[in-house]
Amino acid sequence: MGEANWDVVVIGAGPGGGSAALHCARLGLRTLVLEDHAEIGTPVHCGECLSEVAVQNLDLELPDEVISLHVKGIRVLFPNEVEKKLTEPGYVLEKHLFERWLIDESVKEGAVFKHSHKVKGLNKKFKLENQFSNWEIVGEGELFPITTKMVIDASGVAGISSKLLQNSNQIEVIAGFQYEMIEVENDGYLDFYIWPKYAPHGYVWMIPKNKGRANVGLVTTEKKGAIKFLDSFISDTYLQNNEKINPPWRMEGKKIKPFGGTIPISGPRNNTIDDGLIMIGDAAGFTSPLFEGGSHLAMKSGKYAAEVAKKSIENGKYSKTDLKVYEKLWKSEFPPYHKILKGKTALYDLSDEELAIMASCMPDEMNGMSIFTKIGVGLKILIKKPSLMKKKAISVLLSFGYSRAKYYGW
Ligand SMILES: Cc1cc2nc3c(=O)[nH]c(=O)nc-3n(C[C@H](O)[C@H](O)[C@H](O)COP(=O)(O)OP(=O)(O)OC[C@H]3O[C@@H](n4cnc5c(N)ncnc54)[C@H](O)[C@@H]3O)c2cc1C
Q1: What is the pTM for the complete model shown?
Q2: How many angstroms is it from 14 CA to the middle of ligand 1?
Q3: Of 3.50.50.60, 3.40.640.10, 1.25.40.20, 3.40.390.30, which CATH number belongs to 6-45+96-171+267-334?
Q4: Rounded CA separation 23/149 (Å)
Q5: Quick one: pLDDT at residue 2?
Q6: What's the mean per-residue pLDDT of the chain?
Q7: Nearest CA-CA partner of 115 in 105, 129, 103, 126
Q8: Which of 330, 324, 319 is CA-nearest to residue 284?
Q9: Mind giving me the DSSP string for 219-272?
Q10: Which CATH superfamily is domain 72-88+178-264 in?
Q11: 213 vs 1: which has the higher pLDDT
């Protein structure tokens, strides 16, 4: 085998791919990023929230143009209109500009970016004695075929390497859509409505942006009826007289329609590595399963992947066994997915009345609850509706707790 053209090829230019490329380039690796679309970040498939904790954790210095609004945190609204806050500051981004900025930064550090390059095949090449040597990547675009020592799969929910190599389990996904609306009042909180009537097994959001703009959307397992549910929410609530518009990245004159996509919700894939290959972000299934935030996890896993790639390439050892250290890293840092999933299942098992009772037992500010407050909540639930304990109310509360920014919730 001849020398591979690249040290690392990153598939996809979302937040995960951008972060992986930036860190690979900073570490001096010959890095190529391939993006299927002709332009980075559009159509936007994100509510566009990113916490301050994430920005600090990733050492990002966000330029003004990628920030739409500074926000105070999340407000969860329950069916009886009881409201509870999870105050943790953050940003609503202009996400496509943010993703372009990340790639620009990686190019400044020496990475090469190619749009309109769709990866369609991954061929493993071996040295003598059946030892892994490198990857040959094929696809649509003038650069193919491409050879590289390592691949970082940041292809999002498409999970291209798992699909092509069939080397891990399938993941479950949920559909999410939103409209951009205008003249929407806000007090700096992201409003999350756990109102099963409008979002079965999901929630509706109002995510404020600058100049009265807002992303109003939902996630629900009822994919077919999703838009109808969203339209009903808008027409039944304070948003009924607000206008929907096309977001700035969509060509003027086009029919106004919701935008969105699908999000992994069953937790990480059972395998996130292969010989010379690391999966990150949505491609690895890393999204936080209750509120479906994934950008922070995508970028952190991109950073881990870059660090592991650097060391492995330096030592000339990047077989699947050599890359196990990547799985150790994310498993020790990322949230306890099984606990969030258990609580989420319990949450969607509750009736509107039970949800309302549980909410009324919680303090108005849910962030930073002391152990005594948590015990107090448990006791209140026990007194008001003992059967709620059997329905795993504590698991529900834990899943809220593990969906905070500090646990990579957003
Ligand atoms: C409606 C909705 C709302 C959301 N709201 C939020 C939120 O507010 N906050 C948050 O943190 N998360 C949110 N998420 C989740 C978040 O968008 C994702 O978790 C995040 O974008 C994952 O980043 P990624 O880089 O792994 O993948 P992606 O952002 O999906 O990027 C993958 C990239 O790979 C490219 N690609 C795919 N296949 C190929 C191929 N074969 N060849 C080349 N390129 C390819 C794609 O074009 C894309 O550019 C939301 C998701 C949805 C759908």
Answers
A1: 0.97
A2: 6
A3: 3.50.50.60
A4: 17
A5: 59
A6: 95
A7: 103
A8: 330
A9: EES-TTTHHHHHHHHHHHSTTTTSPEE--TTSPTTSPP--EEEEEE-S-S-S--
A10: D-Amino Acid Oxidase, subunit A, domain 2 (3.30.9.10)
A11: 213
Ligand 1 centroid – CA 263 distance (Å): 8
Which of 9, 46, 174, 301 maximizes ligand 1 atoms within 8 Å of its Cβ, making it the mutation to test the pocket? 46
- Residue 160, pLDDT > 70, answer yes
pLDDT above 80: residue 304: yes
Is residue 191 within 8 Å of residue 237, measured between CB atoms?
no
Distance CA 216, CA 259 (A): 10
| Residue to substitute in 292, 301, 408 for testing ligand 1 pocket (most ligand atoms within 8 angstroms of CB) | 292
259 - beta bridge partners? Answer: 178
| Interaxial angle between packed helices 371-384 and 352-360, expressed in degrees from 0 to 180 and rounded to the nearest 10 | 140
CA-nearest of 124, 105, 93, 13 to 59 is 105
Instruction: Show the tokens assigned to 310.
Output: 């650097």
Q: Give the whole-angstrom CA distance, residue 55 versus residue 50.
A: 7
Q: What are phi and psi of 283, to 5 degrees?
A: -60, -25
Query: Which residues have a Cβ under 8 Å from the Cβ of 103 and sit 6 or more positions away?
Result: 13, 17, 18, 21, 33, 40, 111, 113
Quote the tokens at residue 86: 């999870």
What's the rounded Cα separation, in Å, for the pair 272 and 324? 9
From its phi and psi, is residue 39 left (phi > 0), alpha (psi between -120 and 50) or beta?
beta
Domain boundaries, the chain: 6-45+96-171+267-334, 72-88+178-264, 338-407
Mean pLDDT along residues 371-389 = 88
